[in-house]
Amino acid sequence: MKNLIVSVLLLFPLGLAAQEMKIAVVNQQEIFNLLPELSEVEKEMAAYAKQYQDAMKTMEDEYTRKYSDLTAKGDSLTENIRVLRMQEIEELRTRIENFVPMAREEIDKKQGELITPLNEKILKAIKEVGDENGYAYVTSPQMMYYIGSNAIDATDKVKAKLGLK
Question: Which of 62, 81, 156, 158 is most enclosed, with most CB atoms within 10 A?
Answer without folding.
Answer: 158
